[in-house]
Write a structure and sequence with these properties.
single chain; 8 helices; alpha/beta; 35% strand; five-stranded parallel beta sheet
Length: 396
Amino acid sequence: MSDYRYLIVGGGMTAYAAMCGIRAVDPEGGIGLISAESHPPYQRPPLSKGLWKGKPFEKIWYPIDELKATLHLGRNAETLSIADKTVVDDQGNSYRFDKLLIATGGETVKLPFGRDEIIYYRYLDDYLRLRALSEQKQRFAVIGGGFIGSEIAAALAMNGKQVVMLFPGEGICASLFPRELHQFLNEYYRSKGVDVLPRQKVTGMTRKQDRLFLNVRGADGTDRSIEADAVVAGIGIKPNVRLLEQAGMSIDNGIPVDEMLRAGHPDIFAAGDVANFYNPGLRNRMRAEHEDNALTMGRCAGRNMAGDSMPYHHLPHFYSDLFELGYEAVGQTDSRLETMEDWIEPHKKGVIYYLREHRVRGVVLWNVWERVDAARALIAEPGPFTAENLKGRLSS
């Protein structure tokens, strides 16, 4: 049995940040990490952004050696005994801990067909597989019009590939952006050579020799077939809560944590995509599946595991690059909320405010940079806000 003062289950960005947080408080306590991936922790955003624009591959790796941690890679944590403070992996190895961090992130949502033919884009191995295919093949189908789908479609198109993009919504990132903006994005992607097919549901897939054929049904009930050399999907994730669920601990849209990131037990913590936390600025609980939350929350959890008392009140932001366009977003950016658009140049540069009960709940900074902290401050204000008193607030 391995014995660690600090045991981390999960090997992503949150795990790396947690190790940094631990070492900031405790330079010597033993750290063990169990990860299903065969790779040590790495930066994930470049997989759908920088690596497709020429960023050196070696730049994705975190400096792990200086953290003096023992990595157990290619292993799944299967059982947790809270009474014995022990985790057992799928190879039968046991790990005892004083403090445990659950940083298991999310599991990709998959379609009920296609099996291994579809690349569900999330991990480094997915990037390596798609990159290899892009060097051999020409026509790619991207299923999904959200965060991952929009980035991968742009990345492939910028690398000279033929791309068809299919999704059931009306527009690219329709759950995030108001209608006029997501309709603009449909046309913008088409101008970049992407065949954008909204309101389409993929119902099946077959292979004929070296070609894949997607069975697609439109919102009007019309069926069609889409041919591609390879298929990529980004249709969301669900929090990976299996370890705590097996242990009988509380589960609710992920793992509920208190402000110190404890998961219902003084020695068990959770952070990253899997953690359901309370944000004082928004006055509600939330999960966040992006880099800023992974790194900031992970570091906070690590410090608290090592004896610090640092409440997690951070409101995380996220960002994306879509060809020459880009944005940063913070708070609740849900297109079902009331929205107010403040454009400097329509659909090219401006700010979108998301409101509920006359308070700003979220902000998208569209090609407007270095205003995330100002957006956070605005979200914390009680209001009331109207279109008139928001105009120019962040865009000027």
